[in-house]
Amino acid sequence: MCLTVARQLLVMAIIVVISFFFSKKNRFGKKESQYLSRILLYVINPCMIVSTFDVEFSGQKLKALGLAVAVSFAFHLAMIGIASLLFARKKAESQNFLQGQKAGRSEDCSQNQNFSQDQKAGRDSLSKIAIVFTNSGFIGIPLINGVFGGEGVFYLMGYILVFNVLLWIWGEWLMTGTMRPLKILANPNVLACAAGLAVFCLPFKIPYVIIEPLKMIGACNGAVSMILLGLLFASFDAAAEWKLYAKPLARDVFLRLLVCPLFLLFATLFALRAFAFAGEMHLIMSVLFIAAACPVGMSVSSFAVVFKKDADYASLLVAVSSAACIATIPLLVALLELFLR
Fold it and tell me: What is the pTM of this model?
């Protein structure tokens, strides 16, 4: 599995490098990155979700998928809890800071500090999303397919379904401070999850001329994600950003790749013993654990661009965690196998 991850990261790196130099040469910037981000979030991802459910219906598979969805929901809630607890202290400090400003600081100083505080609050929101939402699509799908085959990818869709629903509920709330139920229900990614389940449950196969375009568009997910990442890299000063981001970057990558997966490792072992009667439980839990151990998802970069947050920091989170997962994922899987002996 280590070789599978390394090969996939090499493919990703090559696309990022090509995009980086092409973007530098043509001086692409925010306008192009916003366009790619919206295409990725609102078109490519929904097509990928729907097309993945185009498999033959089975009652046993549907029950197993339901179990995968339930476990995935529990996994995400646990990670949201971890992220929220870790940043609770920072939130309290931020509120005290704002109260101090209201107590009577100079207007110019207050404006500068407010701007700085807004930047930190935006970065903290990105950090929370990065800790919870993994790259279960670009890294997870080829990795699971290489290890477990198509059946493993099918159960991975339970994770991706929960991922998309919570990303557009909790993630958008972090970005905007609001939660709009109607907009969440009308979001293409959430609608795609519902449509995918409907496609799976249909007693007939979707016509080729309908499903094939969705598959072709969905297959662009990995390449477009990496092109966007290369474009984002091309638009910032690496030396200055590394110095500015080093400490929070190390913290967030450590939390995403080690703290959360290690916590979920024990949850996985508990679930395997509690639901040992379920025939596909070992496969389901292995797939979901690997998905939860993946690096920071490209959705973080996309959200940063769409909601005008710190895109430079988001792109660094994705890149650094993707490189580091070459070591962490095999280690975590080895630990899982060791405990299961």
Answer: 0.80
